Amino acid sequence: MAIDGELDATVLRALHALQKRRVKCTVATGRGYFRLQKCLGSAFTPNFPMILENGGRICKANGSPLLARPVAPRTFPIVRKFMFPRYVRGVDFFQLEDNKYVVLEHPGMQTSPGKVFLAEKFVAARYDNVDAFMAHVTASRCCKLTFFPKDEKKIPFPKCVNASRNESYETVMRRHVSKGAALRQLCEMSDIPLSETLIAGNDYNDVKLFELPARWRIAVGNDCPKLQKRATCAVATPTAFGELLQTFI
Question: ∠ CA(88), CA(91), CA(97), 5° rounding?
Fold first, then answer.
């Protein structure tokens, strides 16, 4: 199951009921572990490994890593040129060893005066210099670089870079890394047939999930027409999705 964003109370009740019936329930998200925990809080604890950073990392519910697919070092020089203020307000990545983020934030490019991308408790290091940030990137095994475009414009990454746009930001990952590839690998590792899975999603980074031969593919909301085309069922709201889940209990 791929759930992104705050979980609706109806969804939570259904997930808890499914877990009591020993159904494996998890999340697949673009977030890193800390941001996901901020979203979920104590309301929901997956009983199956989680897919983080759009498939770049698989970990246990406590954040302990099971598998990581770091961005290839040869990608770093290619994307470096797009880290300057003319392209982005800032860039960040999730640091695997301490579950915190490293942030490049250009001075004067914040969304509003004094506002930062992430609270300090989630940040391992914050830079306003591209070279210093890139030195940290090169030394780290990050799985996803997240670019926040200036003026919300599309960044002209070359085709050789595995880049994708989601909401108001763009991400760069290793080639062939996606939520869908991670879920396929996770199911193979756990001996769970994809034909017996249910996937739910609402955004463009869920498209690769919906290309899998899952038994049920539930599109939530109308933000991503590509999901609608691949879905076995579509619902308008998270609450409607939770009500649909109740029928599986």
Answer: 175
Strand, helix or coil for residue 160: coil
pTM of the model: 0.86
Under a CB-based contact definition with an 8 Å cutoff, are residues 32 and 58 in contact?
A: no
Number of domains in the chain: 2
Alpha-carbon span 245 to 28, nearest angstrom: 17
Return the closest-CA partner of residue 145 out of 91, 225, 181, 103: 91
End-to-end CA distance of the chain: 15
- Pure H helices in the chain: 9-20, 33-40, 75-80, 130-139, 179-190, 207-210, 225-230, 238-246
- State pLDDT tens for residues 147-184: 999 887 889 999 999 998 877 889 999 999 999 999 99
74, β-bridge pairs: none
For residues 167 and 89, state if they share a domain. Answer: yes
Q: Residue 221's domain spans which residues?
A: 9-68+177-246
